[in-house]
Task: structure prediction
Amino acid sequence: MTKSFTADTFRAELTKAMPGYQWTVHRAPKDAVQLRATGIKTSGFNRISTLCVDRTTARGFPWYSARCAGFGTRAPFLGEYSDGTLLRTLSGLQRYFEQKANTYAAHARQIKSARPGAEDEKL
Result:
């Protein structure tokens, strides 16, 4: 019989992986197969990022899902990624946002290059 994964263990795992966020692990029944945590990153009194992570155990194996929202407490989620380990999940979510940033930057460059006199503007 394996030792159950507790909220304290989950918080320690999250803090080790993402120490820049303040983590809250939400209450779950003792026999729960899913744990949910919310991490927030602030600047002064402003919330600049919210990261929600779910850990589900199925057939003895963990599965992580992470969602990220932007500025403010009511900001919509911008992306989601799931994988079998916490670090791969967070890396996948980061890669997703980097790909989106590259896509938008490429479109902005194409529009800028088509406008007369726009070469002098900063992007």
